[in-house]
Amino acid sequence: MAGSELAIVVSTLNERDNVGPLIDRLDRLLGGFDWEAVFVDDASADDTAEHLRDLGRTDRRIRCTRRFGRRGLSSACIEGILATSARYIAVIDANLQHDETLLPRMLAAVSALSSTSWAAASLIVMTRMSFFAGARRSCSRCAPQLCP
């Protein structure tokens, strides 16, 4: 089975009160897209993971992984990315500080670029790989087109 078009990876730590409003915002914004939200919870004391699992029982797009003994945004992002087969992946904060209204425009821009260039589809991966320096420079030149 093919994955979603877009996965939103969300790292959480004691964000129970924010995840519901975030999901509602994503649902309103991404109604025309096939999307899922992959929450990676760092053993929140406020039952964030349990709340997300309850929400996921009625909405198949909501998934949660609870981590014990591991913490941090970078590793949470990696685990969330590995947990999805979506074509495109976005990473946002659960604390509602990222502007999720940019997601549809960013997805449309990346989709348009990836239909003409393999580099656009690999933008996130290649920005960290020094042996792809030429491709990284090409992606950097394309970046202003993503969010004009």
Structure description:
- The chain has 148 residues and is of the alpha/beta class.
- It has a domain of 93 residues: Spore Coat Polysaccharide Biosynthesis Protein SpsA, Chain A.
- Helices cover 47% and strands 17% of the residues.
- It is built from 7 helices and 4 strands.
- Strands 3-2-1-4 form a 4-stranded parallel β-sheet.
- Helix 1 links the parallel strand 1 and strand 2.
- The longest helix is centred in the first third of the chain and has 14 residues.
CATH topology of the domain at 6-98: Spore Coat Polysaccharide Biosynthesis Protein SpsA, Chain A
The CATH C-level class name of the domain at 6-98: Alpha Beta
Strand ordering within the main sheet: 3-2-1-4
Which structural class is indicated by helix and strand composition? alpha/beta
The best one-word shape is globular
Q: Describe the main β-sheet briefly.
A: 4 strands, parallel
Q: Assign the CATH architecture of the domain at 6-98.
A: Alpha-Beta Complex
Poorly predicted residue ranges: 120-136
Helix and strand succession?
A: EHEHEHEHHHH
Q: What is the strand content?
A: 15-25%
Q: Over all CA atoms, what is the radius of gyration?
A: 16 Å
| Terminus-to-terminus distance | 35 Å
